[in-house]
Each structure stands twice: as C-alpha cells, then as structure tokens.
Write a structure and sequence with these properties.
By secondary structure, the protein is α/β, with parallel strands linked by helices. The chain has helices spanning 7-31, 41-60, 68-82, 85-105, 109-126, 135-146, 153-174, 176-181, 186-203, 252-262, 284-294, 305-314, 332-340, 356-365, 381-393, 406-414, 422-434, 475-487, 506-517; strands at 239-246, 263-271, 274-281, 296-304, 323-329, 344-347, 370-374, 397-401, 437-443, 448-450, 453-455, 460-464, 467-472, 493-498, 522-527, 535-539.
Length: 540
C-alpha cells in the first residue's frame, strides 16, 4: 500500500487501466449509444490508454528512471497523440489535468485530491457543449466526493472509485437516450475502469470487482446494443473528423467557434501547441480547412457513419480474395515452424508484447481479405480485439483464435485449409487448438504463491494450462514429472518445443522416457528458440 504516488505507480496504474479496459472493451462498446451509437467507445478508450502506456514505456527506457511529473506528463501526452473518438479525447484531457497537478504538487493524498478535481475541470473544458449523464458527470462526482476524504492515498482513490460507480448508475436518470436504451454511459463506464485501476495500483488489490449495473439496466436487452455499428439518427452529421493539430494557443478560440458552427460533438484536448481535434460534421473538408487556418493538421481521420455501418452489416457477406494466417510467436525456431506451415509471422518480444497498432499493421502486410490471427498468448487478446475492430472498419474479415500457447497455434495450423469456407476453417482450427493441452517449463523469477505451493527465485516451475502444478529444483526431473502429468490425461501426439536455455541432453531423455512409458504415443521435438520458457509441451 502506497503513501504517495511515484513514477512507478503511475506506470503500474497505466498498465492496469489498459488491462481493465481490455477486459471491458466489448461491454463498453455495447453500451455506446451516445453521442453516436457506433459501438466503438470501449475500443477508442483502450487505444487511447494503450498509447499512454507506450509513451510511459518509452520514458522508462532511458538510462534514468523519470520522476513523477515527467512520467505523468509523458502518459498524458501519449494519450493525447493516440486519442480516438469523443471519449478518447476527453479521457486524454482528463489525464492531462491529472498530470498537471502531479507535476506541480507531487503524489501526496492532498495532491491526488487536487489532481482529480483538475482532471474533471480539464475534461469539461475540452467539450464545446458539456452534457450531464456522461463521462464528465462521473469524473466530477468522483472528484468532489474524493475531495472530502481526509485520510491517506488509498482512501482517496477508493472514495473516488466508489463515487464514480454510483454516479455511473445514475447516468440514465440524467440522459434520456441512455434511459431509452436501458444502459449506462459508455464513457463513464470506461472512467470507472480507469479509477478502479488506480485503486489497484496504490492499494495492491482489485477494489470491488466488476461494476454491477442496476437490475433494470440490461445490456443484453438494450435495443440495438449488440456492439455493432449503427447509423446515426436523422439530422445527425454524416462524418466524424479527427486530427492532431500543431497550433498556438491563441488560435484555438477561433477554431472552436468555426467548428462549433459546422457540427456537434466538438471536443478539443491538448495544450502547449499540440491539440487533438474531434468533431461530427456534414462538411468534412470544411472541418479540415478550419484546422489548416489554425495551424498544421495531421493524422487526419474521416469516418462516414453510414458507410461504416454498412460495412459492419456486410462483414459476413465479404467475398474472399485470398486468406492468410498470422501467428504471433517468440523464437526463431517457432517462427520457422509457423512459416513452414504456411503462416505469416509477427515476431514477439517477450518483454514487450505487440500493441494493437503493430498487430493491425502485421495483418495489413498479409495483403489478404481474410485473416486468421493466432495469438498464442492470452495476454494479447485485448490488443488483438482492438486491432480486429479497426481492420473490420477497413473491410477486412478477421478471426482472432484464442490460442493460449504456441503449441495450440501449431495444432491449429496443422488443420488449416484455405480452400474451405472461412467460417469452416476458423471452426476447424479452433477445435484443433482447443483439443490440445499445453504445458510449460519455466524458472521462477521471485517468491510467489502458486497452486502447487510457495516458489522461490530460481525454482523450476511446471505449468499446465497456465497453472503451476509442480515445483522442483532440477530442470530435468521437473520436466519428466511435467511430461508424465500431461500424458496421464491420454493423448496420441506429444509435441516438445525446446527453448534456448534447455540443458543439453534433456531432449533425448524426454524422448526416450516418452517412448519407454507410452510407446503408443507419437512424440516429436522441435527447436523453438523461445526465451521465456525452457520447454513447451503440447498433447493432442
């Protein structure tokens, strides 16, 4: 439990917020009915925080650890540059206000109270026409309530979180469109996730679990809230325009006035010469021209709501013009195995998993209209989901297979057949992956509680389906025990994927043991080259 926020805590918070938003992304997308029911708020918030996390990682990559102020500022600037959609720009500005106070006053409980107040104020200032019952209301209520909390850092964070949850449940009472759809505000739900991550970062525990919506607010029965894009109602502007803008502060009043006259949902976040501009208009060209008059707009993104909705409705009817499989793996041997099986490969750094933008770009490089993505790591599901949503907007047909280990990915590749219909191919590959039990041999990095007891740094861990089932002090003996545990459940084929640090001679020992004890089972071994695991085992 922390007494004050520091740079490491801010980095931890950012990563926890990214995880929380990744877990809630689809739920938040389904809640999205305001200001436009385009089903992307969760994805936009995830991408915004992902950009903040990447900026923080870059700040920590230098020879010296950044102080609190520079770390918080880096996160806020990263969020601003990567902000997506109305809620993303508002959240980025909320983070900017938060960072301003931390940079000026440090990370004490008093500073945290001030930071929450300034963050809410900054968020309101970013919106041309603030509306209650949204993220803004949730932020303001959390800040005002936390400002009355006079105890320590954790108490302030927990008070803000609880107040945000309660404010979220009241949003349908404040905004008719939410009440009519039977949902809470999507942006507010995202902010609750961010504040929950803050509690987790300072207290070291998840505060109160998932947000429980009122019984009468049911996402499953909300009309039109299946998480798909829907065209805006009559009278709503046709285009969403977003761009970054280099412009002096004094140019902003004229820009705000010009854009407010062109449309609605105007949000401008930023400061110190860099701005993120978001607006809904009928004349997209005029919105961009307004930016040119104010400064230098770039990273311009224009979305036609009706076309986006039409693409969403036509996704299942997409005609195949080629299919590719993309495997995310770490290790040259694994990459070669996947390539030999006909898959494109995205090499993964075990210390830095690929972000959604990297996954999306790797899919684009496949140059196929249909792509099956094999993640081979459960930690990549949120980033892959966000990437897939972006790619579907571009007209691609994407299936993300929930492979949890490279051996499941190899099993899926073994049954891939591009001549089958896309859905049939996906189902067949998913079934093959699901029928493959997976195990891993690794070294413990520190003391930890596991299902098999307490492990210490340097202990040899045997994991089956992600859970530690055996702890040993000898790599060879533990590997044999792990293999026996896997074979006890039956199987016809055992695949061993050898890591770089696996001791010499152990492969022959494992092959001989398997053939002696289970001669009816085929056992094969391949050099994988992975660093994170000494050995991967798959049993089909």
């Amino acid at each position: 439990m922390l007494d004050t926020l520091d740079a490491i805590a801010v980095r931890t918070w950012c990563r926890l917020a990214l995880t929380a938003l990744g877990q809630a992304r689809e739920e938040i997308d389904a809640l999205n009915v305001y200001p436009v029911p385009d089903g992307d708020t969760g994805t936009n918030l995830y991408l915004t925080v992902e950009s903040a996390a990447e900026a923080l990682d870059a700040a920590f990559a230098g020879p010296e650890q950044p102080a609190l102020g520079p770390a918080a500022t880096a996160a806020a600037r990263g969020a601003l540059i990567g902000a997506r959609g109305n809620s993303g720009v508002i959240l980025a500005q909320w983070l900017r206000g938060f960072a301003e106070v931390l940079a000026a006053h440090g990370g004490s409980p008093q500073a945290l109270r001030k930071a929450l107040l300034r963050a809410a104020e900054a968020a309101y200032q970013a919106v041309a026409e603030p509306v209650e019952g949204t993220l803004l209301t949730v932020a303001a209520t959390a800040a005002r309530t936390a400002d009355r909390q006079q105890e320590g850092l954790t108490a302030v964070a927990e008070t803000a979180y609880r107040a945000a949850r309660e404010a979220l449940l009241r949003t349908p009472d404040q905004l008719d469109v939410l009440a009519e759809a039977g949902v809470v505000d999507a942006g507010g739900r995202g902010l609750v996730a961010v504040l929950g991550a803050l509690v987790d970062a300072v207290a070291g525990q998840t505060p109160m679990g998932p947000v429980a919506l009122r019984q009468e607010i049911s996402v499953a029965h909300a009309p039109g809230c299946e998480g798909h894009e829907r065209p805006p109602g009559p009278g709503h502007p046709a285009f969403e325009v977003i761009y970054l803008l280099d412009a002096p502060d004094h140019a902003l009043p004229v820009l705000r006035e010009r854009l407010a006259g062109l449309g609605d949902s105007l949000v401008i976040g930023g400061g110190d010469g860099l701005w993120n501009v978001h607006v809904h208009v009928d004349d997209a060209g005029a919105a961009v021209e307004a930016g040119v008059e104010a400064g230098r707009p770039y990273r311009i993104r224009i979305t036609h709501f009706a076309e986006a909705a039409a693409r969403a409705g036509e996704r299942e009817e997409t005609v195949s013009h080629g299919r590719a499989v993309l495997s995310v793996v770490s290790g040259t041997g694994l990459a070669e195995l996947c390539a030999q099986a006909g898959s494109a490969v995205l090499p993964a750094d075990p210390d830095r998993p690929p972000a959604s933008a990297e996954l999306a770009e790797a899919v684009r490089r496949c140059a196929a209209r249909e792509v099956i993505l094999l993640l081979n790591d459960p930690e990549l599901r949120a980033a892959a989901g966000a990437a897939a949503d972006q790619l579907r907007e571009e007209g691609l047909r994407i299936a993300v297979l929930p492979t949890r280990s490279p051996v499941q990915g190899l099993a899926a590749l073994a049954v891939h057949d591009a001549t089958r219909r896309f859905d049939e191919d996906v189902v067949t590959m998913t079934s093959a992956a699901g029928a493959t039990r997976h195990a891993e041999l690794a070294l413990a990095e520190g003391e930890s509680w596991t299902m098999a007891g307490v492990c210490q740094a340097g202990d040899v861990l045997g994991l089956i389906d992600g859970d530690v089932v055996v702890i040993g002090d000898d790599i060879g003996d533990t590997a044999v025990t792990l293999l026996d545990r896997m074979l006890a459940g039956g199987g016809e084929l055992v695949t061993l994927v050898l890591g770089d640090e696996l001791p010499a001679g152990l492969t022959d020992r494992l092959l001989a043991h398997a053939r002696r004890t289970r001669p009816e089972v085929d056992t094969v071994a391949y050099p994988g080259g992975q660093e994170a695991a000494l050995l991967l085992i798959g049993v089909e």
